[in-house]
Amino acid sequence: MRTRFVVPVGTRAWLRIFWDGPCGRLGYHNAMSLLGDDLVLASKKWGQVGDHLVLVGDHHAAAWPAACEDCGAVVPQDGRRQVFCRTLYGTPDGSWRGIPGPGDMYIADWYGCEERGGHCIHGWTNCDGRHLIVQLPGDAHHWWDVDGRASNCTLPNDTLHRCWVRHGDPAAERVHVDKKGRTCAAGAGSIASGNYHGFLHNGELTGC
Ligand SMILES: [Zn+2]
Ligand SMILES: [Zn+2]
Ligand SMILES: [Zn+2]
Ligand SMILES: [Zn+2]
User: Fold this and answer.
1) How far is the CA of 125 from the centre of ligand 2 (A)?
2) Interface pTM (ipTM) of the complex?
3) Which ligand neighbours the alpha carbon of 149 most closely?
4) What CA–CA distance (Å, rounded) separates 124 from 110?
5) Cα 187 to ligand 4 centre (Å)
């Protein structure tokens, strides 16, 4: 699968009602109706990868959803109501806008590693604060923080290497991830998450 570099361009918001299950994958019922997109970037300091909270548009005039989107159960009176927001991404050339899916990747720059003098959430002391996040193929919709630390890192106390070594500016070049550089002995540069296992080689997520 070919990767695609995307950047934050705004916020997409839904009216959401959720209530106790059992229901499907989430375990609770989830009803959503789209409010709309706002091409204004809110604060990125909310802690959740890619998610932040703003009010978008006139949600008082919009229709609340009537049924669970997973099982069709009718929304009860006491369901919890909220305006649910996610970061809206787009390709730099403006040809696509939406919520990232498998193969999409972006720079997460809100972990604050640079502001802490390079001290990273993953234990590095030389992080520039720009983590490359790749959404993986497979059922789990897992995100891969390429600049993170592998769970099987063989140098857990080292603060300078990278378990995955990435090459190429994602905004301009095909990204390639391998073990060529300052690294540990974990794996061969592949990522295993959910039911996906593969490599990011020359801009392609490969199966293996
Ligand atoms: Zn349901
Ligand atoms: Zn970092
Ligand atoms: Zn390592
Ligand atoms: Zn494999």
Assistant:
1) 8
2) 0.75
3) 3
4) 16
5) 11
